[in-house]
Amino acid sequence: MNRTEAFALLNDYVKDAGLVRHMLAVETAMRAYARKLGQDEDQWGLAGLLHDFDYERWPNPPDHPLQGSAILRERGCAPDVIYAILSHADYLTDYPRVHPIDKALYACDELAGFVVAAALVRPGGITDMTASSVKKKMKSKGFARTVNRDDIVRGAADFGVDLTEHVQFVIDALKPLAGELGLLQGIAAEPD
After folding, report:
1. Could you give the CA distance from residue 64 to residue 56 in angstroms, rounded to a whole number?
2. Conformational region of residue 24, where left means phi above 0, alpha means psi within -120 to 50, and beta covers everything else
3. Class level of CATH domain 3-90+97-181
4. 92, 94, 80, 93: which is closest to 50 by C-alpha?
């Protein structure tokens, strides 16, 4: 499966623009890490792009991501991409995160969502965002309540990256895509 096919599949299954933007953000972070680590950028990008494509139809565990993995298998998606997607669900204990792609997807998933949420409330969007401002937002329990902070911290630790460096890496990876993701200017001004 190539990216064009993956994006078409995503658009067949996902109607929520926010969810599409989330998957594009995770794809972008995954591609950046693949470049940095000398891994297969296309495969890592596909894992990020497709990790939640089945969520609208099957939001409840374990249907998500099991239903999606069956569809990906039928479409000829690479087994390592499917495994990484399965391993991003903590409740699927048969798929421990053992490969770098698995650990990267878990590390980037919640963090990318949180970075996007934080950028949306900053007057300058993501353009002047720093890791320290994101980490400060992580301490605010009322902000982006659905994002599990423990998953962000655990994801960075399991991936073997310093949390502050990881946050900044994801911010920097998303900046070139800021226009497409709607992150150039925040929609509401909220102090850091």
Report:
1. 9
2. alpha
3. mainly alpha
4. 80
DSSP symbol at 147: S
Spatial distance between the Cα atoms of 114 and 167, rounded to a whole number of angstroms: 10
pLDDT at 186: 62
**Contact predicate 113/174, CB 8 Å:** no
- pLDDT reported for residue 68: 97
Look up tokens 């565990």; give the residue. 61
Task: Give the alpha-carbon dihedral of 9, 43, 72, 12, to 10 degrees.
Answer: -10
Residues with pLDDT less than 70, the chain: 186-192
- Would you kindly state where each structural domain of the chain is located, as residue ranges? 3-90+97-181
**What was the pLDDT predicted at 189?**
40
